[in-house]
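Per your request, structure below.
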C-alpha cells in the first residue's frame, strides 16, 4: 500500500527545534520530488520546502530560510525537515507530499498552491508557544 507518514511534531517553545521526518512505503523516492507544506487555521496550505530526487534541487520559503533545512536519504525512502529557531508563526499542521513532476526542479509542483501531487501524508501538528 502506498503511504506517506510524517513524524516528529509536537509542542516546543520559541527558539526551540524540531525535526520532522517523512517516510514512504509502496514507492521509491528515487523517482519523485518531496515537499513540505503547512497549513494554519483559516489560511491556505503553503509550501515550506522541497527537494528533488534526481538533481538535488532544494527550495526554502523566505519565511523559513536560514532556520529550516531539508535533506533526503533515498536509500531509506525518507525526507527530513530540520526546524530551528522556531517562532509562533511556524505553528501549523505540516504535510509531506510527493510529486513525480518534481524529481527535477521541485518547485514545479511544490508551490502555493500545490499542483500535480501524487501522494499526501495525513499531516502532523507543530505548535510553537510564546
Amino acid at each position: 500500500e502506498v503511504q506517506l507518514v510524517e513524524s516528529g511534531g509536537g509542542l516546543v517553545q520559541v527558539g526551540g527545534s524540531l525535526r520532522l521526518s517523512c517516510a514512504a512505503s509502496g514507492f521509491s523516492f528515487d523517482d519523485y520530488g518531496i515537499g513540505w507544506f503547512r497549513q494554519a487555521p483559516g489560511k491556505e496550505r503553503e509550501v515550506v520546502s522541497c527537494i528533488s530526487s534526481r538533481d538535488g534541487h532544494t527550495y526554502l520559503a523566505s519565511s523559513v530560510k536560514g532556520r529550516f533545512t531539508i535533506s533526503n536519504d533515498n536509500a531509506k525512502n525518507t525526507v527530513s525537515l530540520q526546524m530551528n529557531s522556531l517562532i509562533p508563526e511556524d505553528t501549523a499542521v505540516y504535510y509531506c507530499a510527493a510529486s513525480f513532476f518534481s524529481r527535477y526542479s521541485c518547485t514545479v509542483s511544490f508551490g502555493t498552491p500545490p499542483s500535480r501531487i501524487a501522494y499526501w501524508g495525513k499531516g502532523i501538528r507543530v505548535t510553537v508557544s510564546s
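The chain has a mean pLDDT of 95.

Regards,
D.
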